[in-house]
Amino acid sequence: MQNDIVVRARGIKKRYSDNNALNGLDLDLHQGQILGLIGPNGAGKSTFLHAVLGLLKSEGSLEVMGLEPFKNRHQLLKKVCSITDVAVLPKWMTVEQMLEYVEGVHPEFDPKKARNILSKTNIKNKSKIRTLSRGMIVQLHLAIIMAIDAELLVLDEPTLGLDLVYRKEFYSRLIEDYFDGNKTILISTHQVEEIEGVLTDVVFLDKGRAVMKESIDSLNQRFLELRPNADNNEKAKSLNPINIRTELGRTVFLYENMDIEKLSSLGEVRPPFIADLFVAIMNRSDQSGEQS
Amino acid sequence: MNVLIALVKRELQEHKVGLIYAPFIVATILSLVIVLVYFGVADIKTNEFNFSTSVYENGEAVEWMRAATVDQKERVIRSGLIVLGFPIAFIMIFAVLSYSLGTFYEERKDKSIIFWRSLPISDLETVLSKVFVVVFVAPLIILPALIFLHMVALLSASIFFAVSDIVPFTWIWNAYSILDWLRIIFSLWMQLLWSLPIFAWLMLAGAYSRKPIVAAVLPLVGIIAIEKVVLGSAVFLATAIERVQPWSLMSSFPKQYEELRVVEIADIPLLLATQEFWYGMLISVLLIGAIVYIRSRSEYSSVE
After folding, report:
1. A-B interface: how many C-beta pairs under 8 angstroms?
2. How near does any CA of chain A get to the CA of B202, in Å?
């Protein structure tokens, strides 16, 4: 497995004057994974992604495709693409000027492919970026990224501020037209529920550290959610759930490493949504932090 | 090479009004004025300057023209063309000053720096491409505007001379030196290299400050004031003024020009032989290094 490591981070720290954005983060990302970085505001998601892209210097050991990103940003960005903020495309440029520019500076960019993708949208080549809606700017950015034969794609809140239609379209295009199993995607977003079906792996981040790293398959085996029949609530409680919450009047219990057979007899069992699991893990981590 | 072309093209697309349109607009306005003057519709007279067809009503001027040698004609034509070119050169210098101050500031302000830096272009390449635009590309762009203006001026004058029976149509053309275009372009290139510390200083102010004009002016005023108070001298101010003047006016330049600072290409080695030129280059390299360093640590692109 070591040979297919795309990102290897050990003890990554980044201090700003008033806080520690990253506080000893360890993470491995392998080829073919679509890894979601999930965390609250200020957890260090963007800081880590910017460090991966060589946009900022961090402490610790960080390798992206065998290169130290800050020192080798120029070399690295031939193989790594990113959408770090949807609003960063220069507004004075026209779409055609943008395609010509990227063609001039990026050896792996295929302008025909980009034009082909754009021809399926409402974006006109002569349009200035400032005249495009936010959703169209994301479409344009995605078209550029998809036309680059990159090995790693870094997405930092790529659909922030977009309406539901564009958000759904973004991820469906990403998976159907871009992801081919060899590419690797590192993605951070607050809208966890929208990428849930896309991810192969998740990392929960809190206060600059990884509080959980798992593949989706393993999460689905390790954690189970039970909605017990009304008279089984007490039995469910006695099985040591790691989290209990109420949802539309029903109590929902979350278990770790629990035999599915044991739960099935008490009610409806299913793997938890990542967002619910995230909240539970964060609560547990806060409680253990308070106790210690 | 493709990368450099793409980078330069991007700069010209972004700053097309100042770097491309403005010189052509000025050239067009001046051309119109010239045509109007030769049609006898307008004239421009100041205490020191008289541009009107009434000059030729004076018999002496016509006599002089008819008797002029090729050398004399060449000198007069050249002086006229250089005076005509001044407004275009001023517009270019103004555009380049404004470009230098704004180029690294604007990309931070609209956050497009995050996009530019997500592509495989090093900060050094980006910074050098902008310096290249200032020093080499901007003068090249005004060349067609200058040629257009000069051709309108020379043609209008020739037609006027011929129609008014002052001198034949060919009077100007057999004394006109086509090599002047080379002289102009080389002079401008060397001028921008000579003044490069100023442009690099403005770029640096734009690269780090939220108020680039203040960051560009305040430290200079501070240095000048401190020098004046502490040492009682004004060497820094004098050096700064020299950098904005034509290079042939520098105090240690070994050649004196009698009129209008018309430099010869052959004089460029004289500039390259001065220590001042290379001090300027050294300061520019240090400033450019500082811009690259600051841009590579642009953590303002971090949103958390």
Report:
1. 92
2. 22
Distance from C-alpha of B169 to C-alpha of B159, rounded to nearest angstrom? 6
d(CA B225, CA B227): 5
Nearest-CB residue to B119 (from A47, A75, A102): A102
Q: Please write the tens of the pLDDT for every residue from B221-271.
A: 999 999 999 999 999 999 999 998 888 888 778 777 766 555 677 888 988
Asked if B303 reaches chain A (Cβ–Cβ under 8 Å), the answer is yes
Min Cα distance A9 → chain B (Å) is 19
| A contact test, residue of B14, B16, B115 with most A CBs within 10 A | B115
B16 Cα to chain A: minimum distance (Å): 11
Q: Do residues A178 and A190 lie in contact, with contact meaning Cβ atoms separated by under 8 Å?
A: no
- Helix H, strand E, coil C: the string for chain A is CHHHEEEEEEEEEEECCCCEEEEEEEEEEECCCEEEEECCCCCCHHHHHHHHCCCCCCEEEEEECCECCCCCHHHHCCCEEEECCHHHCCCCCEHHHHHHHHHHHCCCECHHHHHHHHHCCCCCCCCEHHHCCHHHHHHHHHHHHHCECCCEEEEECCCCCCCHHHHHHHHHHHHHHHCCCCCEEEEECCCHHHHCCCCCEEEEEECCEEEEEEEHHHHHHHEEEEEECHHHHHHHHHCCCCEEEEECCEEEEEEECCCHHHHHCCEEEECCCHHHHHHHHHHHHHHHHHHC
Residue B44 has pLDDT above 80, yes or no: no
Task: Tell me the whole-structure pTM to 2 decimals.
Answer: 0.86
**Nearest CA of chain B to the CA of A63: how many Å?**
17
Cβ separation B112–A75 shorter than 8 A = no
Residue from B16, B118, B129 to probe the interface with A (highest A Cβ count within 10 Å): B118
Write the pLDDT tens digit of every residue in A160-170: 877 888 888 88
Do A165 and A123 meet the contact criterion of CB atoms below 8 Å apart? no
Nearest to B304 among A45, A75, A89 (CB): A45
What is the ipTM, given to two decimal places? 0.86
